[in-house]
Structures are given as C-alpha cells and as structure tokens.
Amino acid sequence: MALVVPKELNELEKPFSLPSPKPFEIRFQVPDLRVPIRDFLRTREVGEFLSGALAGAMTKAVLAPLETIRTRMVVGVGSKNITGSFVEIIEQQGWQGLWAGNGINMIRIIPTQAIELATFECVKRTMTSTQEKWCEIETPKLKIGRLNVNFSLSWISPTAVAGAAAGIVSTLACHPLEVLKDRLTVSPHIYPTLSIAISKIYKDGGVGALYAGLSPTLIGMLPYSTCYYFMYDKLKKSYCQSKNKKSLNRPEMLVLGALAGFTASTISFPLEVARKRLMVGALQGKCPPNMVAALAEVIRDEGLTGLYRGWGASCLKVMPASGITWTFYEAWKDLLLVERRIL
C-alpha cells in the first residue's frame, strides 16, 4: 500500500531559511543650483550692485591721496591748506602716506558704493511704480468744511527719496569701516594696521565704539545724499531735454556728476565738519557731546569760516570722485545690464 503525501506538506518539512538581507544604503542627492545661481547673477539688482562696487573701487584707487588730505584738514590735523598738508604727509610718512588707510578705504568703499547705488536704483523704481499706480486710481480725499485735501503722491520726488534711502542704508551697513578708515588716516602711529585698529577700538569701547558718531553721520549723510542724487538726476534730464537726446556720453556724465557732487558737498559741508570732529575728537581728548556742540565749538574757535575749513580740499576730492563714479557706474551698467537686455 503506497502512502501519497501532498506536495504542500513536503514543502513544509523543508528547513526554513530567511532571505539574505540587502545592504543598507543612504543616498544624498545635491540639488543642481547652477541654473538658479546663474539666473540670480543675471538679475538687474545684482548687475547694479556689482556696477556700484566696481565703480567705487576704481574711483577710490585714483583719488585716495585727495581723500587723505581732505580728512586731515577737516579734523584739524596739520596744515590748514592743501599744499601744506601734501608737503607734511610727504615729509612725515613718505609718498605711501598719501595712501594711508587706503586698504580699509577700498574695503569700505566697495560695499558702501554697491549698497548705496543698488538701494538708490531699487527705491527709485519702487517709488516711480507706486506713483504711477496711485495716479491710475482715484486718490483719497479729505473734506474739512470748505477745505478739500487731496492725498496725492505726485509732489514727492522718487529721486530724492531714493537718494535719502541710499545714504541711510549704506551708512548703517558700513559705518564701522568709516570709523576704522578715519583712525588709520589721522593717527597711523597709534593704529598702524587694520588688525591693530580693530583690536584697540574694541578694547577701548567694545562693539559700540565701531559705531561712534553714527547719529551725526546719518544727520550729515541725509542732506548730502538726497541733494547729490536729486541734482544729478535733474541735471541729466534737463541737459538731455535741451539737447534733444536720450542719454549722456561719458564726458557729459563726468561734468554733470562733478556739478552734483559740488552742490551737495557745499550744502552739507558744515555737518561734515561736525561729524568728523565727533568721530576723531576722542583721539585729541576733546570730543564734543553732540553735533550742535561740535558746530558751536567750531564757530567759537574759528568763526563761521571754520564751518567750511577744508571745503576746497573736499571739493577737490568730491567733484572728480562724483564725476568719475557716475562715469564708471554707467559704463559697468552698460556691460552688465544692457548687453543682457535687462535695461
């Protein structure tokens, strides 16, 4: 008699074995950022930022000696005239003294000019767009008795607002570099290098010392920056309309930029004198408590003419700097923006 065992039972009698485990793997996939980065670098804002940085660096490299002389005259160090200051620097420090603090000056001007010009362009576009949209809708009105008040934005100059914003933003971002530059320029024997200057300033007053004189700097920067950009824009538009042309050539940018810088510097120079006195006054042991006190001290010691001490040297530096900066800035914008058809 034969016993037939079902096939299923035979399978159950076989020894049970687990499948061999697969090796454990963790894979990380890095996203491809090349396209987003490339698109970001080609935006209008980045192009304007880079144009401002390059224009500022090239201008400062050429005009550093005039900046050194101007700073010494404004704060009352050494001779009271341009020629005397020039000779003193050569005798005391050699030719390299004309570029004292130029390293920090270059470090300062690149982010300052980039932030300032990029902020100016961005705010100007935003304000212009806001005004255009505001004009398309019915503006709010307020009626008080027989008096009708129309809330219109047409009286606000986008260029003036953008200029003020540019000065304030760049000052807040880069003021510590301005403090370092002044210390290296005025007292190179006390602050021979950038690292020593940072160490001593921090040791004496902490982080707050790097923002010494911030309030007067903002007060002085506001009228200068507002007037500077407003004047250049108005001069540019008026000149183009009179000559029936769409844009300026390079020599015209140089001249109009210089005129804008001259006007802005002349209007705001007394505040610049007070600002410099406050920022480096501690070095001479007679730092005024505030800007009004600094202005009063200058008038008491030197008369009203003291408010414009160093004005000639300032114009000698500001005028070519303004003209050259606008020329370089527009040239770099042509390269970085126009060729990409952004403008």
Explain what you see.
By secondary structure, the protein is mainly alpha-helical. 68% of the residues lie in helices and 2% in strands. It is built from eleven helices and two strands, in the order αααααββαααααα. It has helices at 7-13, 34-41, 44-74, 82-93, 102-136, 158-186, 194-205, 214-243, 250-280, 291-302, 311-336; strands spanning 141-144, 147-150. The protein has a two-stranded antiparallel ribbon. The protein starts with 6 loop residues before the first helix and ends in a 7-residue tail after the last helix.
Concise synopsis of the structure shown:
It is found in: Membrane. This protein has 343 residues and is mainly α.
Question: What are the salient characteristics of this protein?
Answer:
transport; globular; 2 strands; two-stranded antiparallel ribbon; mainly alpha; 343 residues; MCP; single chain; 11 helices; Mitochondrial adenine nucleotide transporter BTL1
List the helices and strands and how they pair.
Layout: H1 7-13, H2 34-41, H3 44-74, H4 82-93, H5 102-136, E1 141-144, E2 147-150, H6 158-186, H7 194-205, H8 214-243, H9 250-280, H10 291-302, H11 311-336
Antiparallel strand pairs: 1-2
Helix pairs in contact: 3-4, 3-5, 3-11, 5-6, 6-8, 8-9, 9-10, 9-11
Shape: globular
**Helix amount:** 55-70%
Our estimate of the beta-strand percent is under 5%
> What's the total helix number?
11
User: Over all CA atoms, what is the radius of gyration?
Assistant: 31 Å
pLDDT averaged over residues: 79
Number of strands: 2
For the sheet with most strands, the description reads: 2 strands, antiparallel
> Distance between termini?
101 Å
Briefly note the structural class of the backbone.
mainly alpha
Topology order in helix (H) and strand (E) letters:
HHHHHEEHHHHHH
